[in-house]
């Protein structure tokens, strides 16, 4: 048995995990390949680098990522503390000066006597002792191979091509209808019918909408697996009508016949609170997705809990592999944390680092692991990535659709979300905070 815990990767998850372990009096060996070797998106020498936006998104309790941050504040998160200390004005969001943020995290980690920094690229997961793997969405090639060998190649994905996800309650069911194609099977899909005019307007906006920048390293992989909906649309005005928007076999009850085109949505979680837009993997900029996709009848007020993305992203098929405390089912002394587990986003990555750090420390101390229920945002995410009912696993941002709903019915959405947040914070204060 080692007298320390290994953490691989000093990104958002790895730094948070190391901090949580070290504050419990345990030695950490934190391996980071920078500045000897850089992923294609990392450039700074310092830790916890924000590779794109400088925003940690909403800081309001009516927003799930705002709640997640507040939970992490209660649990003494290094990442959120450093973000709070380096914040720049951004309205209701928490945005930071990225260089100051990264430097502050690095200084805190380096000043901690329990943390030893090892500057090298890890190519194999240590067999001895407890390890937290937090090497991120751009895990180096050799380490990816070693992870593939450990878990089975088929469970490791290298590319994220995801369609947008909307909340069920934001779909206008007076326009959309449930049906199975040719009436075969149960009516599992929600269908949004379009007239010829609606379809042509939509096609026009879709094919002219602004695309997100593609990083050089992503160019070769972007078109391999599945095609972005806007690329398919550009092939011709009817291509989508013969592809993902084909109306055949779907009788619109309002018309008593097939519509001109139909957008289909498939249930995305067990509770039926989230729906996935079938075939809509896209590289459109996020505000453009909101603008163009809200042109679809029934989706005029759609609430997007996740936008479509197409980028390189190393992640595990976690529901088959990971427990809700982020340990590996087949080798519980190995934890995974961060984007590699299929949580999406800076705060979400740090939150999984927090839970993996706390629980690896509990293991080390011979104490019982802590699990968070789905009334907390931190627990909703860890339960999502380990949910054995999920068949087609895709990375996910935190959102209220993943959390247990309230017993009381509150119509006003902001009030309801606020109450869900208060329930979680009270639970953490009374049931969790003093426990470890
Ligand atoms: C191009 C891109 C843009 C993104 N933009 C955003 C955004 O704007 N907003 C947002 O919320 N999320 C964004 N994400 C998603 C995600 O939240 C971030 O990638 C986040 O940094 C993930 O945190 P992490 O700790 O899992 O990984 P990282 O922060 O990437 O940390 C992983 C660390 O591990 C190190 N490492 C890798 N392999 C090895 C090895 N073999 N040995 C030792 N060290 C290793 C890396 O150098 C890195 O420091 C983006 C992702 C990508 C790929």
Précis, in short:
The protein is α+β, with helices and mostly antiparallel strands. It is built from 13 helices and 18 strands.
Number of strands: 18
Structural class: alpha+beta
Shape field: globular
The helicity comes to: 25-40%
What's the rounded overall pLDDT mean? 93
Strand content bin:
15-25%
| End-to-end C-alpha gap | 23 Å
Give a list of the ligands. Answer: flavin-adenine dinucleotide
Largest sheet: 6 strands, antiparallel
Q: Which spans have pLDDT < 50 for at least 5 consecutive residues?
A: none
**Assembly level:** single chain
Radius of gyration: 22 Å
- How are the strands ordered across the major sheet? 10-11-14-15-9-16
Count of helical regions: 13
List the helices and strands and how they pair.
Elements (H helix, E strand, L loop, with lengths): L3 E5 L3 H11 L4 E6 L22 E4 L5 H11 L3 H8 L1 E2 L4 E4 L1 H14 L3 E5 L10 E4 L7 H11 L4 E7 L2 E3 L9 E3 L9 E6 L1 H13 L7 H7 L6 H5 L17 E2 L4 E2 L2 E7 L6 E4 L8 H8 L10 E3 L2 E8 L1 H4 L12 E3 L9 H19 L12 H9 L27 H20 L4
Parallel strand pairs: 1-2, 1-7, 2-6, 7-18
Antiparallel strand pairs: 3-5, 4-5, 8-17, 9-15, 9-16, 10-11, 11-14, 12-13, 14-15
The structure holds flavin-adenine dinucleotide.
């Amino acid at each position: 048995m080692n007298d320390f815990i290994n953490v691989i990767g000093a990104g958002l998850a790895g730094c948070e995990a190391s901090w949580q372990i070290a504050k419990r009096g345990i030695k950490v060996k934190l391996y980071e390949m920078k500045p000897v070797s850089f992923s294609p998106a990392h450039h700074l020498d310092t830790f916890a680098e924000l590779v794109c936006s400088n925003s940690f998104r909403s800081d309001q309790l009516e927003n799930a990522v705002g709640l997640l941050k507040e939970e992490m504040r209660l649990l003494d998160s290094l990442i959120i503390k450093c973000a709070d200390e380096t914040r720049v004005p951004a309205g209701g969001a928490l945005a930071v000066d990225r260089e100051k943020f990264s430097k502050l995290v690095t200084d805190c980690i380096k000043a901690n006597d329990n943390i030893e920094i090892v500057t090298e690229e890890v190519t194999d997961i240590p067999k001895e002792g407890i390890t937290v793997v937090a090497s991120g969405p751009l895990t180096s090639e050799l380490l990816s191979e070693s992870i593939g060998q450990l878990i089975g190649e088929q469970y490791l994905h290298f590319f994220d091509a995801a369609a947008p996800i909307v909340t069920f309650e934001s779909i206008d069911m007076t326009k959309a209808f449930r049906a199975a194609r040719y009436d075969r099977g149960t009516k599992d899909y929600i269908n949004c019918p379009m007239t010829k005019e609606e379809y042509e307007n939509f096609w026009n906006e879709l094919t002219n909408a602004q695309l997100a920048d593609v990083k050089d390293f992503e160019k070769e992989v972007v078109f391999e697996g599945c095609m972005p909906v806007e690329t398919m649309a550009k092939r011709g005005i009817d291509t989508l009508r013969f592809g993902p928007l084909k109306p055949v076999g779907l009788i619109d009850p309002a018309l008593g016949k097939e519509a001109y085109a139909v957008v289909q949505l498939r249930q995305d979680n067990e509770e039926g609170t989230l729906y996935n837009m079938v075939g809509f993997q896209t590289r459109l900029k996020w505000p453009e997705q909101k603008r163009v996709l809200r042109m679809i009848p029934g989706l005029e007020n759609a609430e997007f809990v996740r936008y479509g993305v197409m980028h390189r992203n190393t992640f595990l098929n976690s529901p088959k592999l990971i427990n809700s405390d982020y340990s590996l089912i087949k080798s519980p002394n190995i934890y995974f944390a961060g984007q590699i587990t299929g949580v999406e986003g800076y705060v979400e990555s740090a939150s999984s680092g927090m839970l993996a750090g706390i629980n690896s420390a509990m293991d080390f101390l011979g104490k019982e692991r802590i699990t968070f229920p789905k009334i907390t945002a931190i627990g909703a995410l860890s339960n999502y990535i380990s949910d054995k009912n999920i068949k087609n696993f895709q990375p996910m941002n935190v959102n209220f659709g993943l959390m247990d709903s309230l017993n009381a019915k509150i119509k006003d959405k902001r009030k309801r979300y606020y109450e869900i947040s208060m329930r979680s914070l009270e639970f953490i204060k009374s049931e969790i905070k003093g426990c470890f």
